[in-house]
Amino acid sequence: MTQLSDTILAPHPFGTEITEQQLIELFQQCKLWEDRYRQLILLARKLPTLADELKQQNIEMPGCENRVWLGHQLRPDGHLHFYADSEGRIVKGLLAVILTVVENKTPAQILQTPLTELFQQLGLTQQLSGSRLNGVKSLINTIKDIARTYIQ
After folding, report:
1. pLDDT (tens digit, 0 to 9) for every residue of the chain, 152 residues total?
2. Model-level pTM?
3. With contact defined as beta carbons under 8 Å apart, do 100 and 141 qualify?
4. Contact, 125 vs 119, CB < 8 A?
5. What's the CA gap between 1 and 152, in Å, rounded?
6. Which family does it belong to (predicted)?
């Protein structure tokens, strides 16, 4: 969904109430993978479930093991709002991490954001299965593609 609107579709706390710095500090306290896993589940719980009318086929990510929806809207101030959901708890937690970093940024800022490095910094890259890591890369590429559409 790409309409220009003052009304935020599917608001969430990521990138506003929960910042990138808070995420980094939270995950730095995790010494074991189980602790990181638990944090992802807690983040997933803070990401509101998308309303059924927003779970449109055009925003559903193809090829994911769990169903994943990633939508966006361009705000009148030129910043992007992203909203997302997944049927899988871990995937939903990973979405929350991504939303924290891209929410309310301009397309140019998003393209300059090193998203994959954040997953390494949080200690998640080493622990994710190959298919989950590919899913994360696909989400990141989709977000960057969305940002590019507003720059060209």
Report:
1. 444 556 888 889 999 899 999 999 999 999 999 999 999 999 999 999 999 999 998 999 887 778 999 999 999 999 999 999 999 999 999 999 999 999 999 999 999 999 989 999 999 988 888 888 888 999 999 999 999 999 96
2. 0.92
3. no
4. yes
5. 18
6. Belongs to the SufE family.
Question: Residues with catalytic annotation?
Answer: 64
Closest to 55 in 3D by CA, of 44, 40, 41, 66: 66
Full DSSP string of 34-88: HHHHHHHHHHHHHSPPPPGGG--GGGBPTT-SS-EEEEEEE-TTS-EEEEEEESS
Cβ–Cβ < 8 Å for 80, 104: yes
